[in-house]
Amino acid sequence: MKAARFDYERPENIAAALSALGRGGSKPLSGGQSLGPMLNLRLARPPLLVDVGRLPELRRVEERADGILFGAGITHAEFEDGAVPDPTPGFLARIARGIAYRAVRNRGTMGGSLAHADPAADWPATLATLGAIVHLIAPTGQREMSVRDFIVGAFETALAPDEIVAGIFIPRCTPQARFGYRKSCRKVGEFAEAMCAVLADPARGVHRLVIGATEARQIVVDDAADAIRNPDILEDVMREAGLAADPASLRLRRAVIRQAIAALEDESLPA
């Protein structure tokens, strides 16, 4: 099956892109690694695709004292290759390297991954763990919100119809920060069946754990120091979130959480 007929525009600046996206039913196109298959399966039938992938405003990298603002159009491969600075001790490159295949990483973007909001995607869980902030832009202005609030459900975000993801601000970690991440896939490139990310940055007082690959939004545990020491206390969290109905799935999630925690170094925990 091929995509239904649609019009295509490649605007030269963000103002023109927002104007084009103001037309009913239009969709932004960046890397196209998620939208492309949806078009071919006719799960999405927009009358107009607006190509925003090469807009200069979405390709910027702005270093700040407390972190880095990445344009939404930065690709997975650019993080993987170190082509852009990293406000963490190498966590972004590690995550990018595990996303699907190199061909996908060459085209797929961090902003596109967030806007698609696939629960099994790597960036939503990772960025929620890092405390990232999404920058949104619309013809009426700009706003910011945390990644954990931006994703409201499976393939659902807080994006308004006339908004696009303009950038992602990632706070700067200390050199002593440790990050654990595990996901379970049947084979490389497939969607994760279970996922967990853990950040321990005691110098900033941050111990955060995120459970991804759920049937809805990611589960964020902000004060996770106790859970890092004793993962069994997360059983109640998973049960309350409805993740314990299937015993096999619960066992898999439990194992992935323990593996992510085990990836942390002992000295990353508070005394």
Automatic annotation (TrEMBL):
Residue stretches making up the FAD-binding PCMH-type domain: 1-175
InterPro entries, sorted: Diverse_Substr_Oxidored, FAD-bd_PCMH, FAD-bd_PCMH-like_sf, FAD-bd_PCMH_sub1, FAD-bd_PCMH_sub2, Mopterin_DH_FAD-bd
GO molecular function, one term: oxidoreductase activity
Residues annotated as transmembrane: none
SUPFAM superfamilies reported in the protein's UniProt record: FAD-binding/transporter-associated domain-like
Signal peptide boundaries: none
Keywords of this entry: FAD, Flavoprotein, Oxidoreductase
Name the UniProt record assigns to this protein: Carbon monoxide dehydrogenase
Native source species: Ancylobacter pratisalsi
Biological classification of the source: Bacteria, Pseudomonadati, Pseudomonadota, Alphaproteobacteria, Hyphomicrobiales
